[in-house]
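Appendix B. One record, verbatim.
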Amino acid sequence: MSIISTKPTNINEYIATFPEETQKLLEELRTIIKEAAPDAEEGISYQMPAFRLNGILVYFAAYKNHIGFYPTGTGIANFKDEIKAFKNSKGTVQFPLNNPLPIDLISKIVTFRLNENLIKIKNSKTQKKQVQ
């Protein structure tokens, strides 16, 4: 007898677990992220959709009344004025399910996180060369 896992193993499986209207928003969010970071790798981390490129860029998750968007602390801090319109905390911003997603804001945050990760990698390589 085998045990079937109910945990999603990819983003398609994750999205499929939600009602149709929520699925549409999740797919839209996924598309926004992919357009801002076309080379990012999709996956599941902490049982949520995640995008990685030289480290984690962003996570997201659906809930009963909102989509949680997790661009790490720096992604929140650098856009604190723009996210004031949404419920937020140190590491997340909540987009209500009954409102359109803020496409430009999400794209800017993902681009910021992408550049932040690229700079981190570049600085890491520079430091390694200096040590040698």
